[in-house]
Amino acid sequence: MAEVVGFVSAGIGVAAFALQVSSGIRALRQLQLKPEEAHREVTILIEKLTILHQVVSSLKAWEQYQPVDEIISHVQRRYEDIEPILRDISEKYQISGERHRRHWKRVRSFLSEHPKEQIRGIRENINDIIMILNLALMAAQCQALSIHHAASLPEESSSSSLVQEEDPGFGGRFETIWRLQKCSISLDEARERFIKLYQSDESFRNHKDPAGNTYIHTLLRVPWNWRQDDQFGLLHTLVTECGMTLAEETQSFLVRCANWIGEGRHLTLLEAILSYGYDATAIHASPFEEWPSPCSTDWYGGGSTPDPFFVEYIGTILKYSPTMGQTEVTKLLLSRGANPALRDSRLNWMFLDYAVFCEQWHLVLEALSIIQTKVDSHVFQAYVRCAIMSTLGYEGALIEQINFLQKLTELCDDVNFTFGDRGIKDNNMMHYARTLEIASTLIRCGFNSFNQRNSEGKLAINSLSKYGNAPLIRFCLENGTNATNVSQDGRSILFELLPRLSSFDWLTWDVIDGIKLCLSAGADPFATDDCICPCSPDGCHITSKFGLEFSPYQFLNGIPMSAAIEAMGSKSFAIWIDVFKLKILMIF
Description:
This protein has 27 helices and two strands. It has helices spanning 2-5, 14-29, 37-57, 66-93, 100-113, 115-151, 155-165, 175-181, 187-200, 215-219, 228-240, 251-258, 266-275, 311-314, 317-320, 327-335, 351-357, 361-374, 377-392, 395-399, 402-410, 436-444, 460-464, 470-478, 494-497, 508-520, 561-587, and strands spanning 419-421, 424-427.
């Protein structure tokens, strides 16, 4: 009966087992089933058996290798437990001619009664066999590579080196790629190993790891930091000298390569795979969610892996042109009606924000001159203020390009405008004047809101105190800043300055000078804030800003007193004594 239904008797060895599996596939294919449940179940079963046949066939090259023969014998015995069920299905429900309808009912009845117990059980057993054979295949290929490598070593060193050269995370056949990535071998050594392996192993092109990855898949899995030239070099060797091909790769391979975006030279990789035979026109596009997320234009390392397609991430050509410093293109786009008010969806930036971020100062001024001719004065002032607020966030624009800031503020009809920043409302431009030169520029342009309180009740001098710039504090006080002002939580400017004395650094003396200036201008050293903590129900004193173990030498910790006095000189030491007296006065 076996010959009638397509089964053959079991033999011994890889070839016999492969023939045994193929006979089962052939017998199942003779079933003429309708495209319903039975058809679907049997089709899946045939696919599993086909995979099993491919795995068994791949072991033919190692048929005389004892561990492989033992594994084949084991899985054959397991397959013999499956074969009676396959034989029963084929013998009882093989259909021909007029008996088609009656036998179809029997097959459907059989499968509907025992779908889980039999068909699913068969599939699970086949999956187990496939996994066992994959491990056997990997072990055989590791052994082949180890033998080949041992033959190339001097006799006196082969026995000791082989153990050291085995990496626990990779099969031997992929060891070379791992060692090249880890700088254990050179590119020339890796090339030589693969070429020799290709010449000695006819199945080289079919080598895969348990996850189904080829040598090329493993090589291009991730970019290798600063060794990407070695990746491209080995890829060239595998394709041109080792018979590997990219012609049969699917869309998932392209997605894998696209994942280099943000870390590797993905455009170079794209050009390489296209030149080596990958046909992107012959595949279907992968689902959107499988592609890598869009990269920011300012991610770390972007300069070494530029991407001309960032225009897709920014949104419009007008927002893209400032990043490239294309002043004339920007002017042309604006003059032809490009909307300068559009914001992107990622950062909520306008094109002026991108221009400032890329330090295209001249482009900003030229763009504003074009916008001024296109809109009314009220709208134009909104663009000017937007440019000013973007500029205030970049220290380089405020310090190194002071002329740019002056030209920008000259375009503003009122430099006393207020705006929000990081949740704090009603800030003005003086809050960001990091140097005396910037503050003087704002005064020349008409700024006079030194006593404009923001939503926290703080003046510009409060924000500037963190820079430890005594001349800047003096400038604010000379222009009418109220030194007695307290914030919403009841704290004066001294609450901002005193904590800076908790340590000694190169700004300490400027902080001391700033404190003396504020005291001279009327700041109250005895004032308390609005804190209602249990230890100070009437408010915390300014001394609460010092450490609990406050001492007169705290800000000179680590410096020998004699050396400190000598370094400070008599005048500076006198200032230090004054501050020490001030601290003592505050405590008592």
